[in-house]
């Protein structure tokens, strides 16, 4: 099996096709041979039966026929044997000697062959042994020459072998041709895939539009996969470029501040001021690294009370000085199918974005529906332009005026990742424009002019 698996696919297909045809042809040939042999044996058995019906009435009590000439006229050899195998009388092919084994002498009528077809026997016979229960306890042995029957079977065997070999040869040639035709598109796909891997990602497999077989469906699927891979590579390339750009700024500031601090001797107060400035840049690097790691981490399963998490997040923001934060929470717990730490990360990002890029007051509302729990964060700011709204969840996507404010543009990208991992929907609404990401929940949008970010999570 290991050697067979190492062979080319075309060779294995042809070999399997030929093997299947060999089994079919062998079975068919064996059946035909058996049917012809059965027919020829029936003819010989009929001759022996007729001869038995003629000779048996001629036998006397001593086992000797009353008319030996009439017995010989049947054209078959005949013998009358005792139970010990001694010859009482004989004629024709069996005149003068015993031609059957003593073990075949038993009650009843038995038919068997003497001699083989291959190798060729000098005197093949078809023999019938009949027990003469009355008037004596002797045996009547009849035999007919089997030369013509064996010759016919040998001729049939040769013809079957020639026809079978010819059929296998034709089968191998046709199977090889069909395998080549069937695998030709696969070879074209392989060559084109080699060209793509060599540095031509824009190429696609040539798939005919007028066919819909297994190979063409494979080609369409591979083209879709190539398109997805190209898009993913483009996104990763853009992500690397943008990440390197975002990392370059704080690293450049850190290096510049360090070079500036080394130019002259400074007091302790000046060193502390420089350390405070370096801490700000370091915190920005740490925040950026944490957000990048969170974007690649899977979302685990869990259950959280949305109202309790919103209250805890709002309390921390109020303690930090953001008093203009209004909450609208349900009277009963609003359980969602999301871990508390994930829901908290979602709310912290949304509230932070609203406070940083919007205009206070910021409103947070929690609504518990039958199958979904809705969390809305809105502010009184100018919102987003429609083009920015479409790409707001992309990594490092920021408006021009937002680049002067803190942040790296990963907040909404992280929220989309977390909401999608929890099986929910993220919806961005601004000035009547709505953009949705994730599972379509069917929850209607709010139609107002405020900038609103809606998170819809499955209820638990």
Question: Could you name the key traits of this structure?
Answer:
460 residues, alpha+beta, Beta-Lactamase, Helix Hairpins, Heat Shock Protein 90, 3 domains, six-stranded mixed beta sheet, five-stranded antiparallel beta sheet, 10 helices
Shape: rod-shaped
Main pleated-sheet profile = 6 strands, mixed
Radius of gyration: 49 Å
Low-confidence stretches: none
Name of the level-1 CATH class of the largest domain: Alpha Beta
CATH homologous group name of the largest domain: Histidine kinase-like ATPase, C-terminal domain
* Strand proportion: 15-25%
Spatial gap, N to C terminus: 53 Å
Q: Tell how many strands the DSSP assignment holds.
A: 13
CATH topology of the largest domain: Heat Shock Protein 90
Quaternary state, please? single chain
The name of the CATH architecture of the largest domain is 2-Layer Sandwich
Task: Domain count, please report it.
Answer: 3
Spatial sequence of strands, sheet with the most strands: 7-9-10-13-11-12
Overall pLDDT confidence: 84
Quick take:
The protein is of the alpha+beta class. The chain is built from ten helices and 13 strands. It has three domains: 2-153, 2-Layer Sandwich (Beta-Lactamase), CATH 3.30.450; 224-295, Helix Hairpins (Orthogonal Bundle); 298-458, 2-Layer Sandwich (Heat Shock Protein 90), CATH 3.30.565.10.
General description of the model:
- This protein is of the alpha+beta class and 460 residues long.
- 51% of the residues lie in helices and 16% in strands.
- The chain has ten helices and 13 strands.
- The strands form three sheets. It has a six-stranded mixed β-sheet. A five-stranded antiparallel β-sheet has the order 2-1-5-4-3. A two-stranded antiparallel ribbon has the order 6-8.
- Strand 11 (425-430) and strand 12 (433-438) form a beta hairpin.
- The chain starts with a helix and ends with a strand.
- The relative contact order is 0.06.
């Amino acid at each position: 099996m290991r050697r067979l698996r190492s062979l080319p696919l075309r060779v294995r297909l042809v070999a399997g096709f030929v093997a299947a045809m060999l089994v079919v042809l062998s079975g068919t040939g064996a059946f035909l041979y058996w049917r012809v042999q059965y027919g020829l044996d029936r003819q010989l058995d009929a001759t022996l039966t007729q001869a038995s019906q003629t000779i048996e009435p001629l036998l006397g009590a001593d086992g000797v026929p009353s008319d030996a000439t009439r017995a010989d006229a049947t054209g078959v050899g005949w013998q009358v044997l005792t139970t010990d195998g001694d010859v009482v009388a004989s004629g024709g092919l069996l005149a003068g000697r015993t031609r059957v084994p003593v073990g075949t002498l038993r009650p009843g009528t038995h038919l068997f062959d003497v001699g083989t077809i291959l190798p060729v026997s000098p005197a093949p016979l078809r023999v019938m042994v009949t027990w003469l229960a009355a008037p004596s306890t002797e045996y009547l042995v009849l035999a007919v020459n089997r030369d013509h029957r064996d010759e016919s079977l040998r001729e049939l065997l040769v013809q079957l072998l020639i026809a079978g070999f010819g059929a296998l040869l034709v089968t191998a040639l046709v199977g090889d041709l069909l395998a080549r035709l069937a695998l030709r598109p696969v070879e074209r796909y392989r060559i084109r895939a080699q060209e793509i891997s060599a540095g031509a990602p824009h190429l696609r497999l040539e798939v005919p539009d007028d066919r819909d077989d297994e190979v063409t469906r494979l080609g369409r699927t591979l083209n879709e996969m190539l398109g997805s891979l190209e898009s993913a590579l483009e996104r990763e390339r853009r992500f690397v470029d943008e990440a390197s750009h975002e990392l370059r700024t704080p690293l450049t500031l850190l290096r510049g501040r360090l070079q500036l601090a080394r130019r002259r001797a400074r007091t302790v107060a000046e060193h502390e001021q420089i350390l405070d400035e370096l801490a700000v840049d370091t915190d920005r690097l740490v925040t950026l690294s944490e957000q990048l790691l969170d974007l690649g981490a899977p979302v685990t399963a869990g259950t959280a009370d949305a109202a309790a998490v919103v209250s805890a997040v709002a309390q921390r923001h109020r303690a930090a000085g953001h008093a203009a934060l209004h909450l609208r929470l349900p009277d009963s717990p609003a359980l969602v199918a999301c871990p508390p730490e994930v829901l908290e990360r979602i709310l912290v990002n949304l509230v932070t974005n609203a406070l940083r890029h919007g205009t206070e007051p910021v409103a947070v509302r929690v609504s518990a529906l039958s199958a979904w729990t809705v969390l809305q964060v809105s502010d009184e700011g100018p919102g987003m332009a429609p083009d920015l709204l479409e790409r707001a969840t992309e990594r490092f996507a920021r408006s021009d005026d937002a680049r002067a404010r803190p942040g790296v543009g990963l907040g909404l990208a992280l929220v989309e990742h977390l909401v999608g991992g929890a099986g929910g929907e993220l919806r961005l609404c601004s000035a009547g424009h709505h953009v949705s990401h994730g599972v379509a929940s069917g929850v209607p949008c709010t139609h107002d002019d405020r900038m609103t970010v809606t998170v819809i999570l499955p209820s638990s």
